[in-house]
Amino acid sequence: MSFRATVLTLYPEMFPGHLGQSLAGRALERGDAVIEAVNIRDYATDRHRSVDDTPAGGGAGMVLRPDVLAASIDAVSPAGDPRPRLLMSPRGAPLTQARVRELAAGPGAVIVCGRFEGVDQRVIETRDLEEISIGDYVLSGGEPAALVLLDAVIRVLPGVMGNAQSGTHESFETGLLEHPHYTRPQDFEGREIPQVLISGNHKAIEAWRQAEALELTRRRRPDLLPLAERSGKDQTAK
Ligand code: SAH
Questions:
Q1: 114 lines ligand 1 (CB under 6 A)
Q2: What digits encode the pLDDT tens for the residues 17-72?
Q3: Residues in Cβ contact with 141 at an 8 Å cutoff, skipping those fewer than 6 apart
Q4: Would 104 be classed as within a structural domain?
Q5: Are residues 183 and 66 in the same domain?
Q6: Domain, as residue range, for 211
Q7: End position of a domain, from candidates 97, 127, 155
Q8: Does a structural domain hold residue 160?
Q9: Which of 69, 122, 179, 212 is deepest in the core (most CB within 10 A)?
Q10: pTM of this prediction?
């Protein structure tokens, strides 16, 4: 069973974009994942094939029309489609590795890419769209956000990553940022690879990696640490 994504967009030519390359590209070739991009404009009904209109209440920009967007959603995701419907949106819940894993375990997703000022609120409500953000900044459209989400999902699909072990230690998978990496040469511009990593002592290596991951997370992303860890840190800081 493959992961099936249907992306609703005004720019279908942006897909599969970078996902046609490398790891994801091979997953798409094998059919482990399918990305289908559908043009919202195909569901416009007026002479000018218009998809947007001015915001009610006034103000700058344009808003995606609810009738056109709803028609496109209904066409690609009729009642009974088990796939969640996502709307890429800066107002959404921040995307997490946990949500990525959940999506990857499911049948796929219908992903709506906003443009202009966004989409009419009534479509979000009647079509049960889950708003997802990829960070606290504003893009000009949802397409790069959809590509980011799909990249994260496809790389964790079964069989996509060459080395099955790779991935389990990574940033966020353990609740921490990942430890630093090193590879040959042993001496790079006078800096040596930490001794423990070439010791062959696997227990010591694991302990070093754990400690480094914890320290890095404390310094850079204390918000990721469980409450107990954080208050422990506050005490040592005083
Ligand atoms: N006026 C809106 C921003 C619209 S940006 C606001 O202030 O909230 C246009 C489109 O880009 C959005 O509809 C959304 O689909 C996409 N987009 C912008 N920033 C995003 C982000 N951080 N995460 C996910 N999608 C985003």
A1: yes
A2: 999 999 999 999 999 999 999 999 999 999 999 999 999 999 999 999 999 999 99
A3: 9, 10, 11, 113, 114, 115
A4: yes
A5: no
A6: 169-237
A7: 155
A8: no
A9: 69
A10: 0.94
